Amino acid sequence: MHALARAAGFAGVQVHAAHGFLLSQFLSPLFNRRDDAYGGSITGRRRLLLEVIQAVRDAVGPAFPVAVKLNASDQLEGGLDQEDALEVVKSLDSQPIDLIDISGGTYFPGARSASDTGTAAGSPYFLAFARRARRHTTLPLMLTGGFKTLSQARSAVDEGSVDIVGLARALAIEPELPRHWQQGQSAGPTFPRFDTPPEGGITAWYTMRLTQLAEDRDDESPGSLEQALTDYEARDQTRTLAWCRHFYSTPG
Ligand SMILES: Cc1cc2nc3c(=O)[nH]c(=O)nc-3n(C[C@H](O)[C@H](O)[C@H](O)COP(=O)(O)O)c2cc1C
Question: Whose CA is nearest to atom 28 of ligand 1?
Answer without folding.
Answer: 115
